[in-house]
Amino acid sequence: MAERLLSLSFLVLSLVLYMAASTAESAVARRPNPNPIDFIKSSCRATLYPAVCVQSLMGYANVIRQDEHQLAITALNVSVWRTRSSASFMKKMSKVKGIKPRDYGAVQDCKENMDNSVDRLNQSVKELGLTGKALGQDPMWHMSNVQTWVSAALTDQNTCLDGFASPHVDRKLKATISARVVDVSQVTSNALALVNRFASRYRTAAHN
Is the full-model pTM beyond 0.70? Predict the structure, then answer.
């Protein structure tokens, strides 16, 4: 009789433990996968223009996933596309019929700065892709290059508006160009912040 009670108790205990384990496993299985959108929103808090950051990167969530490296590269690519688009816009503006020589010169100078910015950003994308891959070179050397070039690209964009400082430049033209430049510079500023964030974490991981 005692043996039966012992066997029954063991069976009940085993059943309880099995059900508890099954419940825990089921709870883990039901736990939602990390959301790439949440990752982007969280990462964008490190930028000066988080709303712009989220808006510009949300469409690439499936590419970015939760990859810090891919996030930085995507942010740089978005900056390249926006900057190139602005340079093309300025080229069109310089060909507007009846544009005054002073206005034409300001637009041309701005376009040249934007072209330079595109070149630096393209270099940065390629260099960031080499991080951790190039043989015989320090990965942090590549990272430092990226940070330097993106910073220079942002300076090019900000310098773009210098030619419009004159009160003699057409106000409507100045407002139109300024809106484009501000949009691009905010995107590039965000890209630089995300690159710096990735570089900081990369350095930390490399020293651990």
Answer: yes
